[in-house]
Amino acid sequence: IMDVCHDQVNEVTRYVHHKLNPSSAGYQHGVTRPSFITGDFYAGKNVNNLYTKVQQNNTISKILGMDASPFFNDTIDVYLARGHMAAKVDFIFGAPQKATFLFVNAAPQWQMFNGRNWERVEDSVRRYASDQALDLDCYTGIWGVSTLPDVNGVQRELYLAFDENNNGLIPVPKIYFRVVIDRKSRNGIVLIGVNNPHVTLEEIKKDYVICKDVGKRIKWVSWDKENLMNGYSYACAVDDFISVVKDLPLEDLYTSGLLGVEELTIENIPS
């Protein structure tokens, strides 16, 4: 049901590939959410424990050399959740929905972003496949490592674990992305969200926007696009995006134009 590209050394999944079709919006409702499982990955770590609110606060406090509690606020969903890549309800039936609860299909995602703009991206892509009767390839992944300022104001990369040489594992990504390509027309788009509610708009534009934003020309995604707490979001042409993000099956991502973007086409079929 999905292809997973997982880096076992750094304990990070780069992307998950799955498909959506016109029936995807009619998914089975009410399927219970099982616990996430590690499978044969993560070198025997208790990954569930690493994601607990107490432990993530402890880990990030150590990284920053100070009490990280001001960066968390349960009442407004400012904590790190197990953020799906292939979404549970991207699959129609209960069994494949439950199969999405693998840690290799997740990354640390701030819950306010997870439950707001990113959920709207997921829902909008399903609806678009249904409304336009499209078969879509989706490559959902993460890129970069988010930072927060330490006790001295120096930006430090965030991880949920470390190896014996103090190399970071299970990174908190800078961005979540979904490459969406229509299998018939080969038109494509990349929908991107910033996974850091603590950065300013200036910091986002400097460090988190990595390709030309065409998102304002997209009318079918129901996001609050420039809301920083909900996850500042943008969209790019596939070729523009993959000129920066290389951990993808690049030969499968050729496009003939932009998908669902008003009054703009970009020819980028390789010769």
Automatic annotation (TrEMBL):
List the SUPFAM superfamilies hit by this protein, alphabetically: His-Me finger endonucleases
Biological process (GO) annotations held by this record are: apoptotic DNA fragmentation
A GO molecular function term, named singly, is:
metal ion binding
Residues forming the DNA/RNA non-specific endonuclease/pyrophosphatase/phosphodiesterase domain are 1-241
- What GO cellular component entries does it have? mitochondrial inner membrane; nucleus
Q: Which residues bind Mg(2+)?
A: N114
So where's the catalytic machinery, residue-wise? H84
Keywords on record = Endonuclease, Hydrolase, Metal-binding, Nuclease
Q: Which family does it belong to?
A: Belongs to the DNA/RNA non-specific endonuclease family.
Name recorded for this polypeptide:
DNA/RNA non-specific endonuclease/pyrophosphatase/phosphodiesterase domain-containing protein
